[in-house]
Amino acid sequence: MIMSDKKTKTAKAMTGGEMIESRWQSVFLNVKENIMVLDRNWRILTMNHEQQGYTFATTLGRSMLDFVPAGMRPSLKREMTKLLKTGKSFDREVVIAGPDGSTAHYQTNYCPIFDAAGKVKEVAVIARDITTIRQSEIALFNSEKRFRALIENIKEGISISSRERKFIYISPAIKDILGYLPEDLLGKQTFDIYHPEDAPHIKKMVQGVLRGEPGTTARFITRVHHRDGSWRWIELTTCNQLDNPAVKGLVTNFHDITDRVMAETRLVNSERKLKQALNLANMGTWYLDFSEGVAVYSPECCLIYGLNQEDNKHDFESWLSRIHPEDVKGVMEVIKKSESEYSPNQFVARIIRPDGSVRSVSQITNYEFDQKGRAIAAYGIVRDVTDEIASESSLLQEAFNGQEAERKRIAADLHDGLGQYISAIGFANFQLQQQFKNSGAGKSNKAFNQMQKLIQEAGLELKAITHNLSPHHLEQYGLVIAAMDYCKQTARMCGVKINFSSKGIDKRLPSEIEITVYRLIQELLNNVIKHAACRQARVRISLTGGLLRLTVADNGKGFKTESLKRGLGLQNINSRLKPFNGKIEIESKLKQGTTVLITIPL
Length: 602
Prior knowledge:
alpha+beta
């Protein structure tokens, strides 16, 4: 059995069977694909790599179905059950969720392993990570609907060749990739099937691998002859394992990328059409070479940034200087995270054009990395979304205005309908009480008093509900008086001391701002009462330098901000702030309370 700690079995002498087993062990452990062996109950018996954040300890012995989304499990289980019955392998693209919530796409091939009686005893799973391919496809072809996924249901091939570049072993997958059976090529020169124009270049690269240290790897793309007479574009990765006694050869994995190469060729040939489409979509492209330290912008990109086409070369620092100062920190955090995770990124930020105008852009960035994992270049697309954001903000504001109008209607209906009924019931109860008193049934007076008290409490509760739905103090007296009144009311009802203060608000603010801030105070104080377990809270509203600040703080139990979830309440707050370009900052420590700061530029 192949060991997960990657130790190969060595000895001064080996039997033929031991040599074959040892060779397979080394191939198993050195290929870049993820390989697992499952028992008939789909439990993982062994695997060659820890992957997607899972360790050997947290993976071995568990069912493979545990790692795929619930929606995929029924169909995958049916296919796996069919494999056990028929012994026929199958391919499947799956999504694996890591323990941190991240997901990755894998192209998997399920192959049966038979016992001496010809029964399927185990299943080998070969998985190739195609997450980057999927992301690249979306970024590259989202403007052209005719482009489909480039590499689907692809099987990875594996071969071992000698120092003389003769095939020692070829996996059965070569039949699906190039039409050959393994025995057709065993013992033959690998260069015999390479395109004559590509062979000299490939020979130089292979020589570099041979001269390198054990484990030296090279990746290259070449045309390879198909059995039907055609030429296929193949991507190969070769690793020097000549000094490994169990392999004594060059291990190569390969897969067909002809569709991708042809699609890229079509894309290049349609560059003019693509540029026109980008221009119509208000979208530009750019490229940044880190070694040269310069960025090249497309004409559409220059138009978005308000730059001259004649001077379209700019370094990273000059680009960053165009980002709005308030957005620079967030943009840099996105860029650093993307580079550390070797993944594309996307962000929306404001830019300042040379003429002083401010625009909002959406940018998608991808990176190129060298063999040491260092970013050597970046490229991406940028789109002006100023009008979209303005339209979205307008729609949000209309939605909130409609919500407020509905609140007022409900409050009025409650006051004019249910409120009048409660008043009528109270008056009827008072008259009935007087009738009983006049009739001499004084013993029932206590019950009437109790009922009258309940009716009064119901009236007060209804008044509080209608006040929260449509605070008349806000319309009549403005934000400061209404907020102070709400804090007093909340403190009285919940038993929490709430200190309210204001500064710099000497006149009425726009009605949309006042109702937004008032609703934010309601939302935040509601969170304090429900979750903070505090004795005291503080609400402060201030206006200085055209910036409105709302601070809500408590001395409660606090929490770890990294565990903060974007629940419905936080989403609602962000939605209310978006039309006004408002921002929220949350500071909290365990047992030290929480402070929420909201800023809205006026």
